[in-house]
Amino acid sequence: MGMMKKKAQPAYSRPGDAGIPQAFKNGNAITKISFFVFGLGNLMNRQIVRGLIFLALEIGYFIYMITFGIGALGDFITLGTATQGEVFNEALGIYEYSAGDDSMLCLLYGVITLVLTAGAVFIGCMSGKSAYCTQVRIEKGKPLPTFKDDLRSLKEENLHAFLLSFPIIGIICFTIVPLIFMILIAFTSYDHEHQPPGNLFSWVGLDNFKAMFSQGSKLAGTFWPVLSWTLIWAVFATVSCFLLGMLLALLINRKGTKAKGFWRFMFVLSVAVPQFVTLLSMRTIFNANGPVNVILRQLGVIGMTESIPFFTNPLYAKITIICINIWIGVPFTMLSTTGILQNIPADLYEAARIDGASAPTIFRKITLPYMLFVMTPNLITSFTGNINNFNVIFLLSGGGPDSMDYYYAGKTDLLVTWLYRLTITQKDYNLGAVIGILVFIILATLSLITYRRTGAYKDEGAFQ
Amino acid sequence: MKAKRIIVNTACHILLAVLSIIWILPILYVILTSFREESGSYKSYIWPRGFTLNNYINLFHGNTNINFTRWFANTLVIAIFSTILSAFFVLCVSYVMSRLRFKMRKKFMNIALILGMFPGFMSMIAVYYILKGLGLLETGILKQIALVLVYSGGAGLGFYMAKGFFDTIPKSIDEAAYIDGATKWDTFLRITIPLSKPIITYTLITAFMGPWVDYIFAKVILGNDSSYYTIAIGLWTMLEQEFVEYYYTQFYAGCVIISIPISILFLLTQKCYVEGVSGAVKG
């Protein structure tokens, strides 16, 4: 679909910017028909190749719909009617499985058909628009762009369509279609009791959401604590890494500090190690019998048989995870802030020093505001990244220690790791999808508001 | 005044030294343990009783379950292909968003932002079934292709970093090129790309690191097919209950081995990374 966009827009003409409704309203009969018979307007005016491409796409779509698509849409509404069953085969004298409907596939093919239909509608609009442009050009007596001109325009005013087409196809296949699919699952009964192909699942409306929020249920009793820990974690992880990383960068960049490169190297080393290696080693290092406990035993801080429950006590586990995250995150922030810190105009500092400001005041009044201005988008992305920080939690504590009060969650589980458990371990796909949607709602409201307020978004052209 | 400055400077250096030790010690422990002679997992002491290279040697003479060489090669191949693909996607999208003005631009950026807010592997199950539907989960090789597609398919959404960099390249350079008769495509290839080495390197590194770090997608797509594992799942397997007693020291050896090339790569390109973050043309 992205591919077609480039061909649909006419070469070297302004009417291409006309809106779809305008094109439909002002178009002549042929233009209007072109919205339904793709490429007609182009074919009638000797833009054969462009017209044929449009037409071929439409024919392809209808062949798909007739052979497969319409049936898929029907199944999409019912999510399958025939349950897989056992049928006694008299000839062989055994029970055989009769193939039932697979609700999962019904849903998937339904979504794919819907997306293809949306694509067809889009191409239809493009066809109509293209026909309208041709019409306007003929009325004005301008020459019509040939197919060669169309191709050439891809390097010039339609370069965006050319460059974006492949990435967008990738995004549609691997992000958008799966997302629609998972969002729809939140409204079905696809849990561990309704596993296709053995069983069917069906549409249940908002039942899953109601279950998640109903007072006193085990699900709600899990959701709220997990949510609050997720938020606490995200705030602590983001703020601590940002502040400490910046302070570290300042410390290294100080005028008085010798061997700046050496210090930087010491910290960069830990960034260079692949993160999951760090995480897995940290997990063993803080193990009940790991080196940290061994050192503490030998120093006499704890008894020889005792160990500090770094990952088995809920509170300790939370603190340990935040500390380890600082260990991982601070060098990253140090690296990315070093350059920006050097860009702060030196005369600002000079003026402050002449006015007799102390180092903390300078930090509070100049460095911090400047950094906040530049880094806000970064901070937001790292905040959302932390809410979705699967690796750190999963590889360090695995969400544990587990709690009997929770519905298959542990005390350090974030919403995302809980989502993982619900889907992969527990097969409650519908609940997993509900959590995914809720995470999205939280993030969307948080970041869309803040992000749109930042200077970097408003005047992105400020530096150009 | 001078005395005070000396005290402050010394204090800062001591602080830095302490912090560096905290940051270096875990790495040191990993390296030490990778050379430890005694097998078995956790010990009641830190400093190994004896040193050996066998952990490294055994790693490459693995049996069918623990085939480190194979995992390493798998990950490398997957990483190279997904790097090429995702770098291409990211650079295309970020250039378009930074330099070209068209109707859907703001909308696209908002959609990208919104899509980025869904938990990445929420769609994993669906991706799994789509790949299965495409027949990409039949054999091991196909699974690896599937993994490359999964890693790079949505890469176009991560354009913010590179876009920020392109934004800092003065537009007047582009305009000069247009006046000389260059098309936008030429400008992209001949002017923007050569000026963007730091951010290209940055994009390449981040894309390259993905497959080495990712556990979850690889696990879901590769399933139990241990000869097609990537490094991350492989090393994780070594720490599982049934293997940990036997493979504990080899696990650390494996960690060291994969950290070395990645660290070197990272340190070499650290300069580009910092430059990439801070912009193209410095005032």
Concise account of the structure shown:
Chain A has 464 residues and is an all-alpha fold.
Would you give an account of this structure?
The complex is a heterodimer of chains A (464) and B (283). With 464 residues, chain A is mainly alpha-helical. Chain A has two domains: 2-205, no CATH class; 210-458, MetI-like (MetI-like fold, Orthogonal Bundle), CATH 1.10.3720. Chain A contains 20 helices and two strands. Chain A has a two-stranded antiparallel ribbon with strand order 1-2. With 283 residues, chain B is an all-alpha fold. Chain B has a single domain (64-278), classed as MetI-like (MetI-like fold, Orthogonal Bundle). Chain B has 14 helices and no strands. Chain B has helices at 2-34, 54-59, 68-99, 105-115, 124-133, 140-153, 160-168, 171-179, 184-195, 197-213, 216-222, 231-238, 241-268, 270-278. In chain B, α1 (2-34) packs across α13 (241-268) and α8 (171-179) crosses α9. Chain B is flat, with a radius of gyration of 24 Å. Chain B starts with a helix and ends in a 5-residue tail after the last helix. Classes of the chains: A mainly alpha (464), B mainly alpha (283). At the A-B interface, α6, α8, α10, α11 and α12 of A face α1, α3, α4, α5 and α6 of B.
